[in-house]
TrEMBL record:
NCBIfam families named in the record: PRK02793.1
Gene symbol of the encoding locus: slyX
Keyword rRNA-binding: no
Keyword Nucleotide-binding: no
Annotated protein name in UniProt: Protein SlyX
Coiled coil (residue ranges): 3-44
HAMAP family noted in UniProt: SlyX
UniProt-listed Gene3D superfamilies: 1.20.5.300
Species the sequence originates in: Tatumella punctata
This protein's UniProt keywords: Coiled coil
Family designation: Belongs to the SlyX family.
Source domain of life: Bacteria
InterPro entries: SlyX (IPR007236)
Any matching Pfam family: SlyX
Amino acid sequence: MQASEWEKRLEALESKIAFQEQTIEELNQIVVRHELEMGKIREQFRMLVDKVKTAAPSLLAPQSEETPPPHY
């Protein structure tokens, strides 16, 4: 191969690498943003679960108050 062909191939590779680096950085920013959003959602879910637990008593009776099934 001639030097100009090598230079063209090298430039093409450099261009691809630059594009990939930009894409990786964009994807990294998206992942970070999603992780922050997931943290907020987890906290909201935890608060919702706590509210439901305090607002609604258990729908199941304690074991001591359970009547035995009819086949006993």
